[in-house]
C-alpha cells in the first residue's frame, strides 16, 4: 500500500506543469549578485527591479529578450534570475552598440554571465527568430519607436514594426513587460517623445493590443504623483523618479 501511494504521488508531480515544479527565481539574489557595476547598483533604489520582475512574471529557465538593452541593466539581472537553464539576449540598435562605454558594459556582463549574449541591428531591420522567447523586457524604451534622431542615427520608423517583431518572436503564452515614462495628454505622440521622451499609457496599450497582445495586468509600483509630467525625463529635477506605467501583456495561446 505504501509503495502504491508513493507511485501515485510521483505521478502527480510529473503531471504538474513545469512552471509549478520549477522554483521561482530569487530576484533579491539577482540584484545582490557580485560583479554588477556601481552605476547599475545605484539605479536599483528607483527602479525596484526585484519587485518589477516578480510582478512581470519572469521564471527560472525562461529565454528572455531585453529589447533596447542599453548598457545591459536588466539583461544582467534577468540572466541571474533565469538561471543556467535559461538565457538572455540583449538587443541594441547598431548605433547605440557602437558606443565604447556601452560595449564595455555589455562585454563585462557576458564575461560574468555565460547565459547572456548581445546583438545589434539597425532599427529599420528589426527581426528576431519566431517563437524564440518566453519573456521580453521593454524598460523605458517603447516610446523610442516614435523617436527619430540624427545625433543617435535613429531614423523615423513605424511603431507597428516594433510591436509586430515582438509579437512574432514571443512564444504563445509569452509575456512582454512594458515600463515607460507617462506623458500628459494633449500633444501628438511624436512631438511629446521629441520634447520629453514620454508617452501616454493609452497609446502603449492601443499599440500592443493592435499587434495581438492581451493586457494581463497593470502595476502602480513606479507611479509618482509628484511628477507633473511636463518636463523632459532627463531633467535632473525628475530623472530617475518619473511617473512610470507598468504593463504586463501576454501573447495569447492559440
> Which blocks of ≥5 consecutive residues have pLDDT under 50?
1-16
Question: Percentage of helical residues?
Answer: 25-40%
Count of discrete alpha- or pi-helical segments spanning 4 or more residues: 11
Taking the alpha carbons of the first and last residues, their distance comes to 43 Å
Strand line-up in the sheet with most strands: 3-2-1-4-5-7-6
Q: State the CATH architecture.
A: 3-Layer(aba) Sandwich
Q: What is the name of the CATH class?
A: Alpha Beta
Corresponding CATH superfamily = Vaccinia Virus protein VP39
| Largest β-sheet summary | 7 strands, mixed
SSE class: alpha/beta
Rg to the nearest angstrom?
19 Å
- Give, in order, the helices and strands: HHHHHEHEHHEEHEHHEE
Looking at CATH, which topology would you report? Answer: Rossmann fold
How would you describe the oligomerization state of the chains in this entry? Answer: single chain
Average the pLDDT over all residues and give the rounded result. 92
| Strand content bin | 15-25%
How many discrete domains? Answer: 1
Morphology: globular
Q: Please report the total strand number as a whole number.
A: 7
